[in-house]
Amino acid sequence: MSTYDRKIISVIGSGLIGCSWTMVFLSGGYRVKIYDKQPGQAAKAVQNVRLQIEELQQNQMLRGNLNSVEQLALLSSHESLSEALEGAFFVQECVFEDLAVKQAVFHELEGCAGKDVIFSSSTSCLLPSSVFSEVQNRMRCVVCHPVNPPYFVRLVELVPHPETLPVVMDSTFTLMTEIGQAPVRLMKEIDGFALNRIQYAIIAESWRLVKDGVISVQDIDLVMSEGLGMRYAFNGPLETMHLNAPDDLPYGLCFYCGQN
């Protein structure tokens, strides 16, 4: 990858998620080149990002070690896809959640980007095997699913294509950690990924309890906001189980040493 500038990231798509990813990458000191197929949209996105970053600095909420002027100096908009990709080592796709559109985007990207550039999709539910089906070199493809808004909610789900190389997962994990996100690795693709599957399970049981007349809508929300939500803000469900009954867990997993 020596032919690429390890500090340049291309963001494809300039909507809410595209702007959010741009701000996160800028906070990590990366140069960001934003592209949108619609004429003038990338330039509008730059202005939007500028206003948000300046406001964050005024409110003392700006992320990273650089001030707003220094971060914004790293940002540029591009009408040409080839110009937006020039020198980049990582591409974050942020177009809307339409499989055919994403497939077309990555097909076009492969025609312009070098073979060592990592392709990342922001999809929240589409399987990598579907999103990257038009890509010939699928070994460099990965899903980086952010939680909205990514600037404040730092979790990122890394979901591999069945052909994704381990080094691509490792490099992406390192990048996400470096820019201040909290990446988690899925070992394989699955419908809904991890976050949405857990979220849907909670929603489904909540609806079931309300439908069966067990609890009111208002009270089921209190169960989360004044109970489980407060606990899970600090400890995950498995760690909570471990702390409550460390000697009774059948798998004997140690959360502190990472060994069985």
Order of helices and strands: EHEHHEHEHEHEEHEHHH
CATH superfamily of the largest domain: NAD(P)-binding Rossmann-like Domain
Low-pLDDT windows of residues:
254-260
Q: Which outline best applies?
A: globular
How many discrete domains?
Answer: 2
Level of helix content?
40-55%
Cα-to-Cα separation, first versus last residue:
38 Å
Number of helices: 10
CATH topology (level 3) name of the largest domain = Rossmann fold
CATH-derived architecture of the largest domain: 3-Layer(aba) Sandwich
Structural class: alpha/beta
Task: Give the strand line-up of the largest sheet.
Answer: 3-2-1-4-5-6-7-8
Q: Brief overview, please?
A:
The chain has 260 residues and is α/β, with parallel strands linked by helices. It is built from ten helices and eight strands.
Write a structural description.
It is globular and about 60 Å long. It has ten helices and eight strands. The protein folds into two domains: 8-185, Rossmann fold; 195-244. Mean pLDDT is 92; it is low at 254-260. The chain has 260 residues and is α/β, with parallel strands linked by helices.
